[in-house]
Design goal:
By secondary structure, this protein is an alpha/beta fold. It contains ten helices and 13 strands. It starts with a strand and ends in an 11-residue tail after the last helix. Bound molecules: adenosine-5'-triphosphate (ATP).
Length: 297
């Protein structure tokens, strides 16, 4: 299947900061891919390279079979950056006309606004929109030029549940019609609602590239921590470490782990079980590629 966006071994530095570290990724026509990761993971940098706003330090970036730096190539895509500023005095309908006039093919204005629940606001000045309506409009504009592919950087940040769902429906509609989407998010639920494939990034690297279900299973880990001298071999331990006299165990099945711990008769105290953050989960999992071997503390 046609590859619409590709990076090969891409690195991007900002001074001493390594924002992307040898990232290779293919996005094929018709895919809806979620790019998930904690703050500072490198998601926006990757989007900015794909859409030609920044250049890579090394490696190759391809867009629609050409270069993201080529304005003709860029006419085939739509983009909503993480932050947008729209001219306050223009009306909603006018900004849609203005943006779509830059593209050879336009999306029907009425249909576009209806798809994103903005059809009642066509005459409203942008300065009179709520924050959520402005964000929805900014996302809508990515679709104005009948793009083959859209890049959405945290499209639903700041939206309430209803507005978020309306946006999701609009994005799904585009995808159902054959459109390709790459969107970033901090939220697994958002990626789960939209995407089949999820690419997890952390510290500038691709940590996982899999189905949403597989990634959800990875994230569903818990941290069991306790005080003990020594522990026996315990089932389902993905990673472990010792800190300030406590032992921390990362597991997908804390119930079974505790049952086995009690069964073993090992003396322990101060048992705590808590969720791991997304970041913690991924960093723990990926920094322990030989995880099974580390289960014996
Ligand atoms: N213009 C810049 N100058 C210096 N450092 C930068 C610049 N842009 C990004 N960085 C750094 O590069 C790293 C990746 O940032 P990036 O914005 O790509 O992450 P992100 O995953 O999009 O984060 P967030 O979810 O917070 O938007 C971070 O350490 C960030 O501080």
């Amino acid at each position: 299947m046609t590859i619409l966006a590709r990076t090969v071994d891409v690195t991007r530095r900002y001074g001493d900061v390594l924002a992307l570290d040898r990232v290779s990724l293919d996005i094929r026509a018709g895919e809806l891919v979620g790019l998930l990761g904690p703050n500072g993971a490198g998601k926006s940098t990757l989007i900015n390279l794909f859409v030609g706003l920044r250049r890579q330090t090394s490696g190759t970036v391809e867009l629609l079979g050409g270069s993201p730096q080529d304005p003709l190539v860029r006419r085939g895509i739509g983009v909503t950056p993480q932050e947008t500023g729209l001219p306050e005095s223009l009306r909603v309908g006018e900004i849609v006309d203005f943006v779509s006039s830059h593209f050879p093919e336009k999306t029907n204005k009425g249909e576009l606004l209806a798809r994103f629940g903005l059809d009642d606001l066509v005459k409203r000045q942008i300065g009179g929109l709520s924050g959520g309506q402005k964000r929805r409009l900014a996302v809508t504009l990515a679709f104005a030029g009948n793009p083959r592919m859209v890049f959405l950087d945290e499209p639903t940040t700041g939206l309430d549940v209803e507005a978020r769902r309306t946006l999701w429906d609009g994005i799904k509609d585009f995808h159902d019609g054959g459109g390709t989407v790459l969107l970033t998010s901090h939220y697994l639920e958002e990626v789960e609602a939209l995407a089949k494939r999820v690419v997890v990034v952390g510290h500038g690297r691709v940590l996982a590239d899999d189905t949403v279900q597989a990634v959800r299973d990875m994230v569903g880990v818990r941290r069991v921590s306790l005080v003990a001298e020594n522990l026996p071999e315990l089932p389902g331990v993905l990673a472990s470490d010792r800190e300030d006299g406590r032992i921390h165990l990362v597991t997908t099945d804390p119930d079974r782990l505790v049952v086995e711990l009690v069964r073993s008769g090992t003396p322990f105290s101060g048992l705590e079980i808590r969720p791991t953050s997304l970041e913690e989960a991924f960093l723990t999992i990926t920094s322990n590629s030989t995880v099974k071997e580390s289960s014996h503390v």
